[in-house]
Specification:
Elements lengths: L16 H26 L4 H6 L1 H11 L5 E16 L13 H4 L10 E5 L2 E2 L4 E7 L6 E7 L5 E8 L6 E6 L7 E17 L1 H34 L2 H4 L3 H19 L2 H12 L3 H25 L3 H9 L4 H35 L7 H10 L3 H29 L1
Helix pairs in contact: 5-9, 5-11, 5-13, 7-9, 8-9, 9-11, 10-11, 11-13, 12-13
Amino acid sequence: MGQQTAPPIVRSPDIPQPVGRALRTFSWILLLVVVYVYGWQVTQINLRELVTKAPLVKPIILDLLKPDLIEHRPRGEEAQAEIWLDRTPPSPVIQQVPPWERLLFWRRPPAWQITLTPVQAKIGAAVTITGKGFTPSRPVDLVWLDQSGSTATIGKAETDASGRLQTTVKVPVVIGTDHHVVVRAILEGTTPGPSNALRLTASHMVETIFLALMGTTLAIIVAIPLSFLAAKNLMARSAVGSSVYYAVRTLFNITRSIEPLIWAIIFAVWVGIGPFAGVLALALHSVAALGKLYSEQIESIDPGPIEAITATGASMLQVVRYAVVPQIIPPFIAFTIYRWDINVRMSTVIGLVGGGGIGFLLIQYINLLQWRQAATAVWAITLVVAIMDYMSATVREQVV
């Protein structure tokens, strides 16, 4: 038999390769054009309004560039003493500046002082006010400060040539037992000092930093043990372990999918508006975020030590202790510091819905259209976030 030859292969006519590539490229470009045209319409982008409506936002921008940091207050002298109505005063009755304040030179005890006689009285009774250390020959206001913080002027007086005063007032009709009598003297000129917005911003910024710290700390306590249960290389060795793995992973995904802003609203209703609600919101979201990062780090460790220690007949706890933990400590520290950095920034947002911290103060300023005061909070947030970012980056470089 003669050698048979294979029948010739009939090829279907193909589109030349350069033409096919060009068609695919054109199709992708056309698809992107359609997507962006539709997106432009859905989002109602109007670049013209950026120019025509710029004058509306100009005053706000100018105020944001001029934060309220310093204010000039009228110079004055003020002293107060406590008085008790229908209650025996505690003993001894001494008006002192706290010791920790005395260590600060700007918190030295003032020279002006007043004493009351008697310190226990009834409504309508006469009380003698004796003062010293004031500016000589200066009119002063006599003010009653009740235990709710409300004030009312109850008289006027004038210091003598040596800066002393002695006058008598009657106890007004008030509610409560613990009250104060205040003597105020207004002097000429003004004195510069930190504005009220700056003082409030500083105190709320400290609250924000510790809010993030406490939320992160609570999250670490819960996330570390859960992360071992969410590591597939440790749990997927039995049916029970696999079930636990998928359950914990699902819990992480559900918790992480709900934004901290929503959690803050829930906890603000639950425990009330304040930093505690913010701590709980950050902690719950951070548990899921850190748990996922921790578990993925456990899954990416070198399996060699695990196999070696397992071959010796070690228990699961011994495997984790001697084969897993030494490999995960540095990345765990890095993830934790990074999460604290994130929580500091996030805590400014959850404060907008009652989670406490600087965000709560910021939204109040915005609602009152106090843009210079809002600028003080915004710049404080920017400064603290920048410092935190630098510090966290430095620490991560040291531990990783």
